[in-house]
Amino acid sequence: MIKWKEDDPLARSISQDNCTPNLVYGLANEEGFDRMMAGTNNVPDPFMAHRFFPDARWSMVKLWQLLAKILIQTFCRHGIITLVLDDTLFHRSGRKVEGAAYWRDAIRSAKKNIVYTWGLNLVVLIMQIQPPWGGEHLGLTINMRLHRKNGPTLMELAMEMLNEVCQWMPKRQF
Fold first, then answer.
1. Helix (H, G, I), strand (E, B), or coil: what is residue 131?
2. Could you point out which of 29, 58, 92, 122 has its C-alpha 20 to 30 Å from the C-alpha of 145?
3. CA distance 140 to 68
4. pTM more than 0.85
5. Can you give the pLDDT of all 174 residues of the chain as single tens digits?
6. Among residues 43, 44, 17, 18, which one has the least CA distance to residue 32?
7. Do the bridges between strand 116-129 and strand 138-147 make them parallel or antiparallel, or are there none, so unpaired?
């Protein structure tokens, strides 16, 4: 179980809403969710959870930092952390999808037949772990960027994410 620190400045700064840390804790922990829905732990009413995502002012960098911190504390307390970078096409259609464009689809393309499709090109930084039950490694996303046409290159976005994670945990080896 993850121990949630009430005085953690990172958790308090994710949103300007004072009950956000309690809601994050409640969503991440069954016991916390029960308390959150009961209206205790500084949450004024149980319907606050329904306004959590649409009404909060999010800082994605701080949210990714909190997620990475929780995942590394839970799955990789000691030793070297293995990171994997990948870019993936997230299929979304419609003119109103911000950041969407025509991208080469690596899955459907072949040497002679290149396929382009509409969607979001995401650069994903993944922490690779060996699950306690054995078997294949699992990849847990700890950072992500949207690659845009005429914007930073894939390598620039990847370096930006790697530098961020190294700054978040300067004492860890990657």
1. coil
2. 29
3. 9
4. no
5. 344 445 555 444 444 444 445 555 545 444 444 544 554 455 455 565 666 666 667 788 888 999 999 988 888 888 899 999 998 988 877 777 888 888 888 888 888 999 988 889 999 999 998 888 888 989 999 999 999 999 999 999 999 999 999 999 998 898
6. 43
7. antiparallel
